[in-house]
Amino acid sequence: MRYAISDVPIIKRMLRSRWLQWSLTALTLLFFVLAIIAGLVGTPAGNRNFGIVFVWIVWWALLILLLLPFAGRLWCGVCPIPAPGEWLQRRALVQPRPGGKLYTLGKQWPRALRNIWLQNVGFLGVALFSTVILTTPLATALVLLGFMIVAIGTSLVFERRTFCRYLCPVGGFIGLYSQIAPIELRVKDTAICAGHTEKTCYTGSDEGYGCPWLVFPGGLTNNMSCGLCTECLKTCTRDNIALFVRQPGADLLKTTGHKLDEAYKGLIMLACAFIYSTVLIGPWGVLKETARAVGTPGWFAYAGIFLALNLAILPGLFWLAVRGGQWISQPAQTTMRKLFSDYAATLVPLGLTAWIAFSLSFVLVNFSYAWSVLSDPLGWGWNLLGTVGLKWTPYIPGLIPYLQVPVLLIGLTAAIALALRTARQHGQTPWAAAPVTVFCTAATLGLLGLYLA
Amino acid sequence: MKHVRSRIKEELFALGVVLVVLVAFPAGIFGYQAWRTASAGVKIVEIVARAPEQGGFSPDRLSLRVGETVRLRISSPDVVHGLTIPGLGVNVNDIYPGKVVEVDVTPDKPGRYAFACTRWCSVDHWRMRGVIEVTGGSPPVIATTEPPLFQQLGIDLDAMPHEAHATPNATPSISVGAALNVALPQDLTDPATRRTLAPAGAFDNLRADPANAALSDADVWNLVAWAWMKDVSPTALARAATLYARDCAACHGPDGKGKGPAGLNLPGMQKMDPAMPSGPADFTDPAHMLAASDVLLQGKLLRGGMGTGMPEFGSLYTDEEQWAMIAYLRTFLFAK
Ligand code: SF4
Ligand code: SF4
Asked: Which of A50, A380, A390 is the best substitution to test chain B (most B C-beta atoms within 10 A)?
């Protein structure tokens, strides 16, 4: 049930060309530069600043509503943040140096950190201040600039795209949700790899670099750690790698062998979707103000609750649900830790649909700011395209709930199906999935309550 | 060899693109803005008006030069605000969120000009202020303006006994006072001295004057009302009414009774100091208001409430507006 779209000749030529991915990255870098300039010297009014409107409304809409659900990590392939560091590391922009040589200290990332825990921490850090970052152009600019500086530093010291793989706070959740995408990059025939001793997809060749994301493409079974950089499509000398269209969510069907850091990522994303929905679009203005008043006692209370919900309360409830399932049906030789991590696969569709529903509510309402900001990106009174006068108009505000409800229900259905599947794969009775099902249903109902209130 | 050459060519092209993105593009942005400003002939200053809890005006301090025209581009990201710069003749009433309002100012005298929001944008609205410092031009005039009367007279705004022992039984009437046709003593006809007197004190003096023995107490009060209001023009009162609605009504109430919505929850001032007022002054309370001279009221208007939460609105008003406002406060007790 897969189709190799990269075998279509024209698509193959595009993906093999070194210019496609490069020019898209140069374009996103241009937007990135504009966002930073706008944040540093443009108007402090967020809704008139390119940095805020294009990063947190346009890019976010693109990422959550289109790229993530339909193309997985595609964004990572064209992301501007690691680009300068990568260019420095390669001492080349488009065409590789012979043999795909890299100039870096080439240190290996510490083994203990080869997981997404740091990304979880980074994401929580940004999320905790998001009420400020999302509305303050200067803060947005500094955060973006900070990402890029860390990315450059990392690429000079560590091998390849260590930053993307282990540090980028955005990369963590993009990876998690890319498992849902209906596309995947995989080898066509593992037997061919087995016979190919050079493994140029990992080591690099004159055509390109060894996998920047530090994965061996031949062993890929999951979208999470492939950044869709298309490098291996160029370096595989046996034409054994392809981009496939596949059944959505295929990565999740294997519901064993998941890891605790990923489980936590899923829980954190769900908790954050909840907190944002409550704070940003809920009817409680005081909450929003408290979340913005960084440094006040009220904010510390908010921060405490925020972290507790993310790290203890929601994971605790989920743990209880999984424990309940275990009590109903004790699987042979499966530890709680394993069960917890595997059942957390249910949180992937649940969390992504929660984020889609949440994003729909503010993206459609605020998208119209993009037109005037395009004409006057810094809020300096320009009118480049003549669109500055276009008024703020919420798009289809009345329809938003009708989109949110089915989206959340799709997520819930997929979550329940995954819970049942997990129970089966662990040799539990289907009833063991009941507590996790209750957890997912409660989360969905809670979100529905917030959106429909 | 050919391969190497084409590689170098492609790399140079890509380098050109990167330089455009990282250098030429930012330079273009600043260049375009510089060209726009130069061709517009004015300097543009961006002011963002936010509710005071979110930072108020930013910037809230501006430095301008005499004779230099500056275009203020004011915008609000939250609620409707307004902007008044009395000293520079700027009055913008509606700054709607997401819209930009532009006003040009060309200060012609050096000095400090206060500016403030004119819309009740939040409970803390009165905090929303800023200052424009204008320098240059003729050497700054050494302040020749006299200090306000309350300072000249050494009146302690807080220590002043402030309860009248005699108060009218009925509302004193200005027109009835005028119709009495009584010659007023010098200290009531001369505005400069009258302002230093409290109406209750004026009542005592008139009552003690044997020439007025035939008048009833009520008529003596009518006389006081007339003495206070006879020189006040209707235009001045109308102006004061506008200012009152804008600046005072939220706390003191449109009816002057001190029960405006924004004044109801003044932060436990009495807890800090039992002598503090329990809320905004009630302008309809005769014992309180008739014991206060105009000079004292001007002092309070200029200085603000010092901890009672009242801002120094006087600094936003011209002299005429200050006296008009004080006369307007008298209308809460003196009928036409
Ligand atoms: S280069 Fe191609 S054939 Fe060789 S190991 Fe990598 S994917 Fe397999
Ligand atoms: S697997 Fe291929 S496409 Fe994915 S990150 Fe590695 S090199 Fe890039």
From this structure: A380
The alpha carbon of residue A427 is apart from the nearest alpha carbon of chain B, in Å, by 56
Which residues is A222 bridged to in the sheet?
none
Name the minimum distance, in Å, from the CA of A45 to any CA of chain B.
6
Tens-place pLDDT, residues B207-265: 888 888 888 888 889 888 898 898 888 998 999 998 898 888 878 888 888 887 776 66
Output the DSSP codes for B297-309: HHHHHHH--TTSS
Which tens digits make up the pLDDT trace of A98-152? 877 788 878 888 888 888 888 889 888 888 888 888 888 999 999 999 999 999 9
Closest CA to A439 of A306, A340, A330: A340
Q: What are phi and psi of A181, to 5 degrees?
A: -55, 150
- Residues A309, A274: contact at Cβ < 8 Å? yes
- Alpha helices, DSSP H, located in A282-312: 285-292, 297-308
In this predicted structure, the answer to whether residue A309 has a pLDDT above a threshold of 60 is: yes
Residues in Cβ contact with A448 at an 8 Å cutoff, skipping those fewer than 6 apart: A404, A405, A408
**CA distance linking residue B182 with residue A370, whole number of Å:** 72
DSSP B167-195: --SS--BHHHHHHT-PPPPHHHHSHHHHT
Using CA atoms in the order A211, A212, A216, A222, what is the torsion angle rounded to 10 degrees?
A: -120
Residue B59: cis peptide before it, omega within 30 degrees of 0: yes
φ and ψ of B171, to 5 deg: -65, 120
Neighbours of B192 (CB within 10 A): 9
Whether A45 sits inside 8 A of B15 (CB atoms) is no
Report yes or no on whether pTM surpasses 0.90: no
Q: Are B210 and B262 in contact (CB under 8 A)?
A: no
Q: Is A278 exposed, middle or buried (0-12, 13-18, 19+ CB in 10 A)?
A: middle
Query: Position of tokens 């049906």?
Result: A329
Tens of pLDDT, residues B68-116: 888 888 888 778 888 888 778 888 888 887 677 888 888 888 888 888 8
Sheet holding B70-75, edge to edge: B57-58, B43-49, B70-75, B100-105
Gap from A323 CA to chain B (nearest CA, Å): 46
- Looking at all shown ligands, the one closest to residue A203's CA atom is 1
Q: Which residue has the tokens 């997401």?
A: B98
Residue A216 CA: nearest ligand 1 atom is: 6
A200 alpha carbon – ligand 2 mean position (Å): 12
Question: Could you give the C-alpha distances from A299 to A93, A292, A310, in angstroms and in order?
Answer: 45, 7, 16
User: Which one of A23, A27, A48 would you mutate to disrupt binding with B, by most B Cβ within 10 Å of its Cβ?
Assistant: A48
- d(C-alpha A414, C-alpha A406), whole Å: 12
Give Cβ neighbours of residue B151 (< 8 Å, ≥ 6 apart).
Answer: B299
Strands B90-95 and B81-85: antiparallel
ipTM of the complex: 0.89
Of the ligands numbered here, which is closest to the C-alpha atom of A205? 1
One-letter amino acid for residue A341 of the chain: S
Which DSSP symbol is given to A55?
I
Distance between CA A389 and CA B258 in Å, rounded? 43
Report chain A's terminal Cα–Cα distance, integer Å.
Answer: 41
Q: Hey, is the C-beta of B76 within 8 angstroms of any chain A C-beta?
A: yes
